[in-house]
Amino acid sequence: MAEKEENIGITVKKEDDMPEWYSQVCQKAELADTSSIKGFMVIRPNGYGIWENIQDYFNKVIRERKVRNAYFPLLIPESFFKKEAEHAEGFAPELAWVGGAAEEGEERLAIRPTSETIMYDSYSKWIRSYRDLPLRINQWCNVLRWEVKQTKVFLRTREFLWQEGHCVYETEEECDKEVYMFLDEYKRLAEEQLAVPVLTGKKTEKEKFAGAKYTTTIEAFMPDGKALQCGTSHNLGQGFAEGFGIRYIGKDEKEHIPWQNSWGFSTRLIGAIIMTHGDNKGMVMPPRIAKDKIVIVPILFDKTKKEVLKKADELEKKLSEYGVIVDDREGYSPGWKYNEWEMKGVPLRLEVGPKDIEKKHVVVVRRDNGKKEFVKEADLIKRIPKIIDEMHGDMFAKAKKHLDESIVEVKSWEEFEKVVKENKIAKAPFCGEGECEDWIKDKSGGITSRCVAEGKPKDKCVQCGKKAEEFVYFSKSY
Amino acid sequence: MAEKEENIGITVKKEDDMPEWYSQVCQKAELADTSSIKGFMVIRPNGYGIWENIQDYFNKVIRERKVRNAYFPLLIPESFFKKEAEHAEGFAPELAWVGGAAEEGEERLAIRPTSETIMYDSYSKWIRSYRDLPLRINQWCNVLRWEVKQTKVFLRTREFLWQEGHCVYETEEECDKEVYMFLDEYKRLAEEQLAVPVLTGKKTEKEKFAGAKYTTTIEAFMPDGKALQCGTSHNLGQGFAEGFGIRYIGKDEKEHIPWQNSWGFSTRLIGAIIMTHGDNKGMVMPPRIAKDKIVIVPILFDKTKKEVLKKADELEKKLSEYGVIVDDREGYSPGWKYNEWEMKGVPLRLEVGPKDIEKKHVVVVRRDNGKKEFVKEADLIKRIPKIIDEMHGDMFAKAKKHLDESIVEVKSWEEFEKVVKENKIAKAPFCGEGECEDWIKDKSGGITSRCVAEGKPKDKCVQCGKKAEEFVYFSKSY
Known about the structure:
BirA Bifunctional Protein, domain 2, Translation Initiation Factor IF3, 16 helices
């Protein structure tokens, strides 16, 4: 039997060595692979299935919001980047240039790191009048940023997949409103689908998107005490519209410059899921977003095999809307199969053997806490969605508890240093200045701001002692 | 009112100048735009919606066939192309090279023109034993081929979107079987979803995919007498497996080389739809694949406006599964709105005014033939899917008639020349040799083989007079 040599689980503990644990889970649960090309990843079907379900869910959300999907070119002419100065400067170091066009004596082309410029070139042709606004377009695509830092599948790779929404409005008010509307949808996706709690708020001036008026973010907090930026929604102001000549004739018959926002999340979300929920047995898929929510393991004996397999097929059909795998492979013991599917993180395991058939029940085992339940066959259709909701709720609550308990309000630099050293989040009074933030990063060994928190501080800036404009969350980060 | 200046329809007739007609339909129905970058296109929401529905449909099909989606890197190292000699030669002229890696003193990287090589590099790591087979993976992605020919949105662009399926099997028989299984699914997609009839069969040796043992194809035939290759399914033999070192240990405990196939269709399908079904009023969307199948135009008078808008909303909710647009814009006449939605090709128009409400019916107008029907409100839910099926059937039948009537069996070179000059398809006895096919292309001013037809010819090869191995379809093509 091949089982012994193949069935090797995760060999380090999550709490002991999270980076190594993460690599092993990605590899062994077949979520993603490093590629032969430095800095690139292969997203395997187990990982890509999560992305597909995120896409399905989010496409429904944005369709409701009157956003439509489209597709814009992969390559962007050099001159386009120069039309918005801050944007150009922000992305310049990460661009990959393509040879083809240069050889024809034409302008240099870069692979898109984000699509503001190429999209707004088209927008300037499409938008004529207030009747064309608001314009709300989204695209799902690959982007390339030539990272020089150490790469890690899902978290930091030179190529990743994402969605980028790009909207145009008549007024600042509408634009602002929808920046936060999309941010709220991101929070809902993270919390209600992925069971990943997030902090939300504005980025500081220093951390905002290159070319934006302001940036808002959802920030998750990993078990190792590092924050992970999981999605951003920007008010771009009128700078891009000016650069690309986007104008509209208003109801007043005069020409106006419109307002724009953009918002995106990426396959990095899958990394957040793995780190938040995975355990020392491997991956744990949040049940609402898992493509295959159920694995059925028939318990096979020679005498009753036929009957048990028939029952497994019957259950598969009955539950097909949840995505069901029937593991009827020969030559593997049930225990071996349990380990394999636990490694892969399938949310629910259904065990069915001759005795279960006799008793007209099925054994349902939750992946997150191993809780076993005997469910009457007749109740299955009603009980499964409830178990899924309970499991989601428990997974979210556990992660939320960690996040809530990690936030510590600090008043002094000493407190600040202590809190972030303990892998927690310092909620600190902050002056808001870029220079001060640079100092904080330098003095603390790389701590960055995550986002502005609620509340109005009475104390002075934790670092420079100037007037504190707001509370800001600071922590280690990915 | 803005209507007069904006409401300019297609200014040439399809039958008079199809290339110009095609460009205008793409532009004015907002299906796609040329881009500021030479040879690239922007797929606008009206066009992209078709692609999304094709994806939804086809994802269901391949999931049934146990194919799973994944994502592989955009960039491919130069050395990978060299592992299969014919493949490398076939794609060399069309590659776009990226600067980034070269600057780091590493190997040159090309943007994928197709993903055999990058995927099989991973496959060689993943496949160990017969237990890992069959392996069936598909990816949806963008590919780049640096075309030097004149480009045209959807039909020939340097970048396009596609799906590429890549499967690995133990035996040649399984591999062959599924090459045709996927080809059949392509035919079903084209005919039963897009209402585009196709010829299916093997490509000649000359026209097969670079690196394949053989290629099969679905070929549509456009109203201007040019064939359009719409999807191909290849048996790749064992060449790639040998090149990339893909091996498996069989049940016999010996090492074997597996068999592989690959199969793909692209956004070119949208071009086939436009050309096949569009008319002098603009686009005609095949109803099964249209994202928005219904537009409701409320007929508004001051007195009854409120009531009519309420009814329109009610109908929208009732029919929401079909994708419904309610055009309640002020300042446009119903006639102007009819023209606009006809231009955009929405399959069904529902008109509802005060008199219709009184009579408890709705006016349903088909886009393809303008047929008007008064449908009792109570019957709407039952009648709409039937109208959609009838419309699909009529659109398919019309295109099928054109295809069938265009095929002419020829025996001599004179007949051959006459038939292709008349923009028809010559079904010709052919020797099968690449050299002879080159002569045919030269002598006829660019006619190429489309695929092998059924039947065994008694006559000699139409060009060289040698023994004819098979009938082959020849025609002009895109």
